[in-house]
Design a protein that fits this description.
The chain is mostly helical. The protein has one domain. It is globular, with a radius of gyration of 18 Å.
């Protein structure tokens, strides 16, 4: 996995993440969102544990618990809000609004970890934003979907938290290591969500247990690959590649939920893919300049 370019590793992570989102949307149709969120992070932690053990069970220090405790709280809030938006928005549309956070990532990275904001990163992000704006056209009206506006607002709030979470991961991914970051990214949100889910949500539909397991598998793969990618490249280099998630979400929405992608989504996807390819090219160009691996 380490031999693959970070851009390709992130693309694989996004495929797994989109599959995870599809299982979350499916489970959200018959289960409370708190239970779905708890299941996502609990099973994600369960499936991340073998990787942590295989890595030799590296010690988790008090400083790691503090840092990832804060990050886990943000993940729990962002994830629960994002999962709820799946219940009132089509999958591709919810993913589209989540890209708002990607536009903030280079600026958040500049403030939090001192990454230099390059014009090429701004250009790639702007190109991706234009694609997202085109893809978002033709959404259902407020009359046709009463909770549509609230779903959009929650998606944007979750996206803002997501930008902070991703930059925080970049700040510690290389120091703490992928096994620890992957495990704590699921374990801590699961611990935080356990009590609210038990207290506020009705019992789950146990016939959905195989889907919960599948969701956990996708979640573990998604986070592990994401950590690997961000440990080897700057946040602003990888941010535009996240726009490709719209492609995978559109396919899953169409195949599983019969959500036919609008023409605007395909038009926007052209620019989104262009932004991702430009980011990957710029990553390789910078790696060659500093003499690192392509």
């Amino acid at each position: 996995m380490l031999a693959l370019p970070p851009a390709l590793v992130l693309t694989l992570a996004l495929v797994a993440g989109s599959a995870m989102d599809g299982t979350i949307k499916y489970l959200g149709q018959t289960n409370h969102v708190l239970l779905v969120a708890l299941g996502r992070y609990a099973f994600g932690a369960l499936f991340s544990l073998p990787t942590y053990i295989h890595a030799g069970r590296p010690p988790i220090t008090l400083d790691m618990w503090r840092f990832h405790g804060l990050r886990g709280l943000l993940i729990a809030c962002a994830g629960t809000g994002f999962f709820w938006s799946f219940t009132v928005l089509p999958l591709a549309e919810a993913i589209t609004y989540s890209f708002f956070g990607l536009l903030l990532m280079p600026f958040v990275a500049t403030v939090l970890i001192g990454e230099r904001l390059r014009p090429s990163s701004v250009f790639a992000g702007a190109l991706g934003f234009v694609g997202v704006a085109i893809a978002a056209q033709g959404a259902p009206s407020q009359e046709a979907s009463p909770l549509h506006a609230l779903g959009v607002a929650v998606s944007l709030m979750s996206a803002t938290l997501f930008a902070i979470v991703m930059v925080m991961m970049r700040a510690r991914a290389e120091r703490d290591g992928a096994p620890i970051v992957t495990l704590l990214s699921s374990l801590i949100p699961a611990l935080l969500l356990a009590l609210p889910a038990v207290a506020l949500a009705p019992p789950p539909h146990w016939s959905d247990r195989p889907v919960f397991l599948l969701m956990g598998t996708f979640a573990a793969c998604f986070m592990y690959l994401m950590v690997r990618a961000y440990a080897r490249a700057e946040a602003q280099q990888l941010a535009p590649i996240h726009y490709s998630e719209l492609i995978w979400a559109s396919l899953i929405g169409y195949i599983v939920f019969n959500e036919a992608p609008r023409l605007q989504i395909y038009l926007g996807a052209v620019l989104i893919i262009a932004a991702g390819l430009f980011a990957a090219w710029d990553e390789r160009r910078l790696a060659r300049r500093i003499g690192g691996p392509p």
